[in-house]
Structures are given as C-alpha cells and as structure tokens.
Amino acid sequence: MTSTDNSTTHTGTGTGTGTDTGATEPVAAGAAGVRPSLGAVLDAHARGYAQAVRLHLADLGPDVVEDLTDGLEADLVDALADATAPLETAVGRAPQDDVTLDLGTHFGPADAYAAELRAAAGLPPRVLSDGRRRSRRTLAARGARLAERWQRAWSPVTSTPQWERLRGLGRDVRPFWWVARGWIVGAFLVTVLGGGRPSVVPEGAGELLVMALGALVSVQWARGRWIPGSWQPRATVAASVVAVLLVPAVAGTTYRESVAGADPWSGGGSYDAGYAAGRDDARNVAYGDSWGEDGVWVDGMQVSNLFVYDANGDPIKDVQVFDDRGRAVRTVTDGGGEQAWAVPDVQGSWYFRPMTADDGRDRWNVYPLRAVPEGGMEWSDDTGLWAPQVGVQPEAMPWPFLKAPTSFTSGGAASSDPSSDPSSEPSSKPTDESKETPKDEPEETAKGTSTDESSAGSSPERDGGSGASTAPSSKDVAPGARTTATAVEPAG
Amino acid sequence: MDTTQLLKGVLDAAVLAVVEDDDGYGYDIVRRLRARGLEEVGDASVYGTLRRLYSAGALTSYVVPSGTGPHRKYYGITAHGREMLAIQRKEWQEFTGTVGGLLGSRDESAR
To answer: Where residue B26 sits, what CATH number does that domain have?
Structure first.
C-alpha cells in the first residue's frame, strides 16, 4: 500500500485544485517528454475502470448506479494522481505503462471495488444478481415442465394418424406461408416508406417490387440462404410473428380498399373524409340549434317547412308527405316542436304545430306546417310541455310563391296525379317534357307568372327579403293561396 | 487486531466529522480521512458511506462542473447530519471510555 507516500504528497497539495499538478509535477521530474498525454491516458483509464464498476453494480438499477458512481471518474483520477506520482518516480518507467498497471493494483479488481462500494452504501451484495440468474434458471425449468405437461395433455390428439396427416399438410404448404409472410412484411414496409395503409394489393410497380422482394427474402431465409446460420431460426420466427401480427391491419385495409371499396366511392378513406366534411358543413350551416342529421335538409341547410304545389303551380294545403319507405317526412323532429324557428318573410320566432289526425294523434308530416308565434306559447305544468295558449290558433306560414314558377300545362293535371303511382311514372315523364322538377327551369316560368324573382325555388329559407313583396302580390295572382296569405299578415 | 472492522463502525461518524466544517467531494473526503490518520480507509467504502449518509438525509449533495475534467459531486452536512454526528460522538466517547477502562485495566494488569 502506498498510503504513507500518499499522505505526505497530498497534504502538501491540499484539496480541490491539486489534481493535475499533483500528478504532473513528479512526472515532469521523471519523464518530461510524455507529460501532455498523461492526463488523457488517466482519464481514459478512469473512465474504463468506472464503467467496469458500474457494470458490476448494474443489478441495482440505473438510478442507484448513477447515484453511487456519479463523479467516480473524477475521484479515480484524483486518487491515481496521488498514488501514481510516488510509484512512477520509484519505478522510473514510462508513465502510460505504470498508469495502466496502477488502476488494477491501486484500486483492486473492479468487482471488488464495486462490492466495497455496495457494502458501504448499505446495499445488498451481488448475490442478489446471482440469485436473479438462478431464479431465471428455475423459471426456465418451470417453463419446460409446463410445456411438457401441455404436450402430454394434448397427446390423445397429437398421437393420432389424422394429426400426423395434418402436420404433413402443414409442412407441405409451408412455402406458401413463406411467400405470404414476405409479401405481408413487404406491404408493411411499403407503408413505412411511402405512407398510407398496408394492403396486399400493390399500387404501382414500386410497391410490387418491394413486396416481391420481401417474399423472395422470406423464402430464401426459410431455405437458410442470405442469412447467417445462427440467425436463421430466430429471424424466420421473428418474421413470422411480425407477419401474423400485421395480418389484421393488412386484411382490414385490403378489404376496405379492394373489396368493399370497389364502387364509385373510390376508396374508403376518402369517402369517409368526404362524408365527415359534408356532415360538418351541414351542421355549421344549420339555423338555431342543430339536430344533427334529423329533419329535412336542402343544400346543407335545414328545412323548417314544406310547400307543395300542384301541376298547375297552385298551392296545395295539408299534404301528407312520405318517403319511399313509407316513413313520415318530418321537418320538425322529436323535440323540435318546442324549438323556436325563424321563418322567412315573417318577423319573430315561431313554434310549429302538428296537424291532429282523426285518430287524435299528432301528424308532423302534413304540410305546410302551421305555427304559433312566440308569445302565444305557454308552459303547461299539467302536461309538462310547451303548448299554445288557450284561444291561440296556429297560423299558416307565407308561401314562397303564390303560384309555383313551374307548371305542367300540357297534360300537367293528368301527369301529376299518376306521378304518385310508381307504375305509370316511367311512361308519363319521358313523354311529357324534360321539366320534371320545378328546379330545372325556374327563371323561364318565373317570368311568366311574375310572382317571384328568386331563381332558387327549392329552398324557401333562401329567399331572403323578397318575401315582403310576396305577401301582397299573392292576393292578386293566386286566389287559392289568399286564405293562407291573409292569415299571415297580422303576424308580420 | 483487524482495524478495518473497527473502522466500519466509526466510518459514518468519521465522514460526518470531516465534512462538518467544510463541504467536500468524494476523493477529497478520502484524503481528509487519510490525512487525519485513517490511512487504511478504502476509497469505495468512503463513497458508499457518503451515498448512504446522503440517502439518510445526513448529507446534501450538489454537482460542481469542472472546466477541465469531469464534474465533481460535493457533499455538505445537514442539520440532521450534525445531530447524528453529535449523538455518535457522545456514544463513541462513552464507548471508548468504557472499553478503554476495560482494556486498559487488563493491559496494566498484564504488564
């Protein structure tokens, strides 16, 4: 031990600053030419030794190891600086050699150093890691026993000739799996490289190349080619596991894009996105509170009321509207009856009221809906519902046109009735005119009837300020609509 | 007698004593211990003890970066450490008094 020499040297240098000078001064006296490299050599050796110590502590976990050996390099360098100086001068050799020797001789083997550190810190000795290794061994043994028991449990099945035949089949079809495995992993690589979703159907030559290459590599690996022998079993098993894990994703995308998606929607992803965007738009445009997709929507805007005209363009009141499945077409959906609506051309808010059928039930699909002004509603404690006040009758809402801008003059009356009969529809319409709907040529006929300058006849809410002129003019043009129009006037 | 065994019992107190007045980093503390006569003390034992005392809350630690070499981890005594040191000092003095009386009398009788 060099401690006696140490004590004499370092008492002189004192604390803190003395590391380099303490080391180099005596060296300079001995071998001045090697002096610059000594510090670096020391540092390197200290790092190596500290690393070895850390390795022996590794079972304690990184935090404890860091805590225990933080600054160890600096301490080692200091200790070496104190220790090597007298040694070198004593031995008189090249410092590198001495330093190399010194680390081991001065501090002892790294494992002993680590054990001392561990013991002094009150941490459990390394036996624990051996114990862990032992427990790993016992775990492996237990696993082997379990596997054996499992195999024995299945032996009634696995010992049958049928099982053997099944195994033979499995062996024979293995090459197909090799190809599929490589193909699937290739498909996944394509998405890693190029984005998108993995599909077994390649898009373009590049993807085809990658997937074919994957299949080729997979087959070659299975044959023990293109891979070091020791890696072969693990690599092929790993590739198989990866491929099996990828099957659900790949199959899902393939089905969506190539099987289910083989229709005008052209690809699940874009369709979904478009649908979502369209729905968002619809929600954004909705007046008042939006009720999602319920109700009737025209051009992204929710419809509050419907107005029906006959073939001559005359308004028809109290029309029941159903869709092609026989469901009542309701602009006001459940709960919407308690919702105030803004109605074009009329001020204030309105509560739509259903027609009451002969059986006493409310019918919301009878158009045009009538409405009660906001002040005419009251809360009924008895029913727990909003209802019109006693004596307040629902009023008719103004018609968008007193006479529809389109009429079917040549046999229009005849064609409008059969049009409700599905069987006659194909024969009647082509023979008539191309004007199947009022939407097609609203302006042409609008000039003729001179009721409304608005071109978009389909959406009443869109008409905006034109309604003010509609109400008065309605009396002149369409006598049939007069009752409804006059009924509205007090409200507006 | 194996003094390293004796050292183990007092190393905590000894380490606390040498940082009582002045903070120090690992090897610095080893130096101080050796300078005060504990020449057989192992570096790793001191570092381990420092870590244990730190865990026990007897020491604080802070890192001082070094311009040239690796950073240094300094240790300083806490109030709790001072209490520990005071207790251990008292215990040691009582113990050495007792053992000294015990051994000294025999020693004398042997001579």
So the answer is: 1.10.10.10
